[in-house]
Amino acid sequence: MGIAFAVAMLLIYLLIVGQFQSFITPLIIMAPIPLTLIGILPGHWLTGSYFTATSMIGFIALAGIIVRNSILLVDFIQLQERAGVSLSEAVITAGAIRTRPILLTAAALMVGAFVIILDPIFQGLAVSLLFGVGASTLLTLVVIPVVYYHMMGNPAGPNHAGGKEILGHGDTISHREPSRVVPA
C-alpha cells in the first residue's frame, strides 16, 4: 500500500504540474495531504477501529479529494491575480467564495462514509474518509491560503516583507512590488 500511495502522489504531482505549468504550485496544493492524518488517526482511536488496508485506501482517496479542494482555492487566487487583484485580496476572496463548495463536497463525502461505518469490512475506509475529510477540509481552508501567500507573495526571499525590504533592527525601506505578468 505504501508503494501505491507513493505512485498516487507522483501522478497527482505530475497532473498538477501539467495544469499549472509550475513545479512549486503543486507542492502548495499537495501540502494539506498529510493533514488528513490529523483526522484519520484520532478517528480510528475514537471508534476503536484498527488501521487496516481499507483505511489506507481511504487515505489515498482523501489525497485526491484534498487536492481538489486545494485546486479550487489556488485556481481562484490565480484567476483573481490575473484580473489585477492584489495577492492578499485574492487570497481572502478565494477563501470567502470557495468555502461553500469545499464544505459541501466534504459534507457529501462524510454522509456517504457514515453509511458504511458499521460494515466490518469497510469500516476502516469509512473512518478514514469521515474523520480525515472533516479535519483536513477545515485545515485546508486555512493552510492553502497561508502557504500560497507565503510562497508566492515573498518573491525576494526572507528579507522581503510585503513591499518593504528588511534592513535589520526593525528598519525597513518601502518600495513598489514588481507587477506580476501571468501568461494567458
Ordered list of secondary-structure elements with their pairings:
Layout: H1 2-20, H2 25-30, H3 36-47, H4 53-82, H5 87-115, H6 123-152, E1 160-161, E2 164-168, E3 171-174
Antiparallel strand pairs: 1-2, 2-3
**How far apart lie the N and C ends?**
40 Å
Can you tell me the overall shape? Answer: globular
Number of DSSP strand runs: 3
CATH architecture level-2 label: Up-down Bundle
Instruction: Compute the average pLDDT.
Output: 83
- Which CATH class is shown? Mainly Alpha
Q: Helical region count? A: 6
Unreliable runs, pLDDT <50, ≥5 residues?
Answer: 157-179
Beta content comes to 5-15%
Strand order, biggest sheet?
A: 1-2-3
Q: Compute the gyration radius: what is it? A: 19 Å
Biggest sheet layout:
3 strands, antiparallel
Category from helices, strands and their pairing: mainly alpha
Determine the fraction of residues in helical runs and give it as a percent range: 55-70%
- CATH homologous superfamily grouping: Multidrug efflux transporter AcrB transmembrane domain
Determine the CATH topology.
Multidrug efflux transporter AcrB transmembrane fold
Number of domains: 1
